[in-house]
Design goal:
The chain is α/β, with parallel strands linked by helices. Helix content is 32%, strand content 11%. α7 links the parallel β4 and β5.
Length: 179
């Protein structure tokens, strides 16, 4: 897939740097726009994702209730982890995309893509409080850092607050990697 893809794409927190033009990641500490898109979609194509609790919620509350879910993964155990009532394909994700002809020329963008982009733009700065008095909070500090570090930086982070804040606050630029 490339930037000409005509479907909105969200990633998991750990795949943040796999696709540079996603609308963020859903989940318990995810982006509001990504959660909105996931819950309001008619069809959700899940590729190579285990649908971990951090992504779909502890009770699956971020999965859409009335959408067709198509889950593609090369590992049967991953597919069997969550009972979402949709279709499951045990195969290589790249082979699935080729077979479904999802690589190649694109058609005109659909109104759903525009609506998703609008929601993403509307919520793009929700974690930051500009002009407040007092010390910086973590999100403001990360926002400043985001504009100062190299576009080719490798950003390493671990547990605790940075585990949630860094994927929400820092953007994909250039060849950045998030580990």
């Amino acid at each position: 897939l490339d930037e000409s893809c005509t479907i909105p794409i969200i990633t998991t927190q750990f795949a943040k740097d796999a696709i540079r033009y996603s609308y963020g990641h859903p989940g318990v500490k995810g982006h509001t726009a990504a959660n909105w898109m996931l819950k309001n979609a008619d069809v959700v194509l899940v590729m190579g994702c285990s649908l971990h609790n951090q992504t779909i919620g502890w009770e699956g509350e971020y999965l859409p209730k009335n959408a067709m879910i198509i889950h593609v993964a090369p590992d049967r155990a991953v597919l069997d982890k969550v009972d979402h009532g949709g279709l499951k394909f045990e195969c290589d994700v790249g082979e699935f995309l080729k077979a479904m002809n999802l690589w190649g020329p694109r058609v005109e963008r659909h109104e759903w893509v525009k609506e998703c982009a609008d929601v993403c733009h509307q919520h793009s700065q929700e974690y930051f409080v500009d002009g407040k008095e007092g010390p910086l909070d973590l999100y403001e500090a990360l926002s400043i850092l985001d504009g100062k570090i190299s576009q080719d930086a490798i950003i390493l982070y671990d547990a605790g607050q940075p585990y949630y804040a860094i994927p929400q606050a820092m953007t994909m630029m250039g060849n950045r990697r998030f580990i």
